[in-house]
Amino acid sequence: MQVKMYCDGGSRGNPGVAGSGAVVYDASGETLGEIAYVVGKKSSNNVAEYHGLIQGLEASRSVGATRVDVFMDSKLVVEQMTGRWKIKHPDMQKLARQARDIASGFEKVTYTWVPRAKNKKADELSNVAMDAAARGDKPGIVKGTGVWAGASAPAASGASASGASASDASASVGPAVDKRDAAAHWAGHESPRTRFILLRHGQTHHSAERRFSGTSNPDLTDTGREQAKRAASALQGFGRIDTIVASPQARAQQTAEYAAEALGLSIATDDGLRELDFGDFEGLTRDEVIAKDAEAFATWQSSPNNAPPSGESLTAFHRRVTRARLKLQERYEGQTVLLVTHMTPVKSIVRQALGANADLFKHVFLDLASISVVDFYGDYGVVRCVNDVAHHR
């Protein structure tokens, strides 16, 4: 019998309370059963996703399947299980070996990545399991789900491929360890990690001509759309992304649309992520501004407290973006958020994480459709990556 199995896993905090879900369908699309499984109280997204896979394979075996088509929204697990990506972390290797051991009992198992929008039922079940974990339920199948008598807990827990954390489910391996990620550990911070993946928009005719582009609203060029597509594809390898928030300006919204399609997410809009208002210098090149009003340009450049005529100072702009980031961090605490915005807002968030002064704006450059990554643990920031453009090579 051939079945389709959808599975998922997640954690609130990464590491945090974690659960997984799996649902099995027959060839006609009828549900054969579903399972929600509590992974633990301090586990990562990747660990939970592997638990979802293992539980789903166990469930498929229990209903008598001989061929299993696995569908997941975890690019990492799909690529690792197909052998296209290496598994470096030893605990993750254990989970993968366990999944492969179960899979070896079938005639054939295939693995396919799907956007989250097409994996809703498994996602719902993983949230049921996370709710149970938050209530204090121990690792295991959540009561009322798991119609397969043979489904059992994975034998060992693991850590994310990035070394983020390990599960605290059933079996313990070796001495107790600090399960915070490395940055939180060395800084001594207990607050959950909120990750911001920062994507600058693709090319517009303003950026192609090196014009100040703040309040104006140019669309992406054909080149800009290709850049956005490549960035969206690259983001699929960045692990679980929980939500997308974009600047309201057209170039950011259009770039975000490609990411939303690739990740299976919707787009929220935050006005605080708008680009700097260049006032009277809007739409002009640097040389045109100097020719128009060299004194005003020099005054603006002399201090972050000074604004272009009718525009916005860097100081006021930085306060605006900081307020936006703090609100987003509060709203999505413990999650990974893709922010699709502009060069200066990305610089501002990097500056916030570094605790740097306004000189940073002059000494960091961000290419079009580049990716940067910043983590916040409460008020403590860590910069993971700045101006990644490998996807454009």
From TrEMBL:
One of its GO terms (molecular function) is RNA-DNA hybrid ribonuclease activity. One of its GO terms (cellular component) is cytoplasm. SMART domains: PGAM. InterPro entries: His_Pase_superF_clade-1, His_PPase_superfam, PGM_Phosphatase, RNaseH-like_sf, RNaseH/PGlycerate_mutase, RNaseH_domain, RNaseH_sf. Residues 152-172, 205-232 are annotated as: Disordered. Substrate binds at R251. It holds the Pfam family His_Phos_1. The active site is at H201, E275. PANTHER family: BROAD-SPECIFICITY PHOSPHATASE YOR283W-RELATED, GLUCOSYL-3-PHOSPHOGLYCERATE PHOSPHATASE. This is Bifunctional RNase H/acid phosphatase.
